[in-house]
Amino acid sequence: MNKNSCIVVDDEPAAHYVLVNYIERSTDLQLVAQCYNAFEALDFLRENKVDLIFLDIEMPEINGMEFLKMLDNPPKTILTTAYSEYALESYDYGVVDYLLKPISFPRFFKAVQRFLSYNTAVSPQEEEPKSISIRMDGRIIDVKLSQIDFIQSFGNYVKIVTPSQTFLTASTTQQILTQVPASKFIRIHKSYIASINKVIKYEHGMVQINNTSLPVGITFRRELQERLANK
């Protein structure tokens, strides 16, 4: 199996230790270089083509964002940093994911899967659905995913909330979660699934969607923060 070549660019040896360990556990990646500053990485990339960069932002002399701006056609990049303030800017430079340190292996694995999805052509049969079919009042109704604000657990039912209408169907949030695309929806609480593109604000453990505020469970907050950085 052909592996995707990758390099690690980080000034911290401890960060290299973690990422190298994770890369060695991945069957889809092959580490071809370790660079401890942007100059080393620039020299390597002048002579070599790679598929993926694991890039730290806070580095001396030339930081990660400055480094990306210097590349005419940068490889796919996963940022690895302890700082989140650059997240929104980073996605102007083809960054596929943003990992906050300390990085867990499950979160690393998820980022790699996102990178792999960028490199895989999606066939018509694999295109994301445009609507979800539910049973309501004895009828099958199609609800457009683009209209959904959020989904709420309601006893033995779930409420699917849109700006103009609320649909009530016998189901669970977990069942609904398997039917909506993960690229557009995220579980933010044991009782709520939110449309990531409808989130207006996130602060103090709450998200705002239109005029509604929804709680965010503690275990869901980190992924939500990273997903919002992807918007």
TrEMBL record:
InterPro entries, per database record = CheY-like_superfamily, LytR-like, LytTR_DNA-bd_dom, Sig_transdc_resp-reg_receiver
Q: Which PROSITE patterns match?
A: HTH_LYTTR, RESPONSE_REGULATORY
Q: Which GO terms describe its molecular function?
A: DNA binding; phosphorelay response regulator activity
Tree of life domain = Bacteria
In its UniProt entry, what is this protein called? Answer: Response regulator transcription factor
Species of origin reads: Sphingobacterium paramultivorum
